[in-house]
Specification:
about 250 residues, alpha/beta, Rossmann fold, 7-stranded parallel beta sheet, globular, binds nicotinamide-adenine-dinucleotide
Length: about 250
């Protein structure tokens, strides 16, 4: 068991990459708070984990609301014990369109869900991680931060912020034995994909995108979960401030 005695909060756990991370962590012995705004789907993820002998609990949590995040941390510690791992994975996409067509409310929401959430999670989780002798934070960024493409400008910028925050938090929290790393997935088959491709995914669009990925496919929740598992495990005890491309070579 690679995450024995660990207690994690995974945001955005009701779907896609977060769901994959929650399952993979639980398989490796981690107790998981599945945190999301989609309560029904989140409950289903937690139940599926518990049904196969894992330990999980669904908690309603809007990552932009400090009280919700505080509640998730409190729940993790009261149900499962000292928090060790915070996975800031919930995200909001930008529909592929001209940068000038994105309205202000959408811009604010993208930055609230993708960037402010990292700040709020730090405020609520870091004091406990310090108190508990250390821990790990994993932020889901994107290849969009490293190799930005047109049509996703504000989303790209939000993920760029996630990358810089990861590195800055890593240096500031290293003395507390808190490691901070990011995942940079390439496009994956989740409900978010349609937004990135302009509203719908045709076979032609998928094939065109896949042709830019040297390994020749999109990412899967399993790819992202396996990378998160490594970063969350003690095998990565000397790794901090890394923004790991999980992208089949797309960013080369
Ligand atoms: N799918 C891709 O192509 C891709 C590529 C690179 C990075 N990412 C990033 O991966 C992460 C996960 O995305 P996904 O592809 O699994 O998408 P998804 O749509 O399958 O899942 C996102 C989850 O986040 C939840 N969520 C949204 N806003 C929330 C909020 N305010 N508070 C709590 N939960 C909220 C949703 O309810 C949903 O369950 C995101 O940060 C995304 O930006 C996705």
């Amino acid at each position: 068991m690679r995450l024995e005695n660990k207690v994690a909060i995974v945001t955005g756990a009701a779907s896609g990459f977060g769901e994959g991370i929650a399952h993979r962590f639980a398989q490796e012995g981690c107790a998981v708070i599945a945190a999301d705004i989609n309560d029904e789907a989140c409950e289903a993820v937690a139940s599926a984990i518990n049904d196969v002998g894992g330990r999980a609990m669904a908690v309603h949590c809007d990552v932009t609301a400090r009280a919700d995040v505080a509640g998730a941390v409190q729940r993790a510690q009261s149900e499962f014990g000292p928090l060790t791992t915070m996975v800031n994975n919930a995200g909001m996409p930008q529909r592929n369109q001209s940068m000038l067509e994105v309205d202000e409310d959408t811009f604010d929401r993208i930055f609230a869900v993708n960037v402010k959430s990292i700040y709020i999670a730090a405020l609520e989780a870091v004091p406990h991680l310090r108190e508990n002798g250390g821990g790990t934070i994993i932020n889901t960024a994107s290849t969009a931060a490293l190799s930005p493409r047109p049509g996703l400008t504000w989303y790209n910028g939000s993920k760029g912020a996630a990358v810089t925050l990861t590195k800055s938090m890593a240096v500031e929290l290293a003395p507390d034995n808190v490691r901070v790393n990011a995942l940079c997935p390439v496009a994956g088959e989740t409900p978010m994909l349609a937004e990135f491709l302009g509203g719908q995914v045709t076979n032609e669009m998928r094939d065109k995108f896949v042709s830019t990925v040297p390994i020749g496919r999109l990412s899967t929740a399993t790819d992202i979960a396996n990378a998160a598992l490594f970063l969350a495990s003690d095998e990565a005890e000397f790794i901090t401030g890394v923004c790991l491309e999980v992208d089949g070579g797309r960013c080369i």
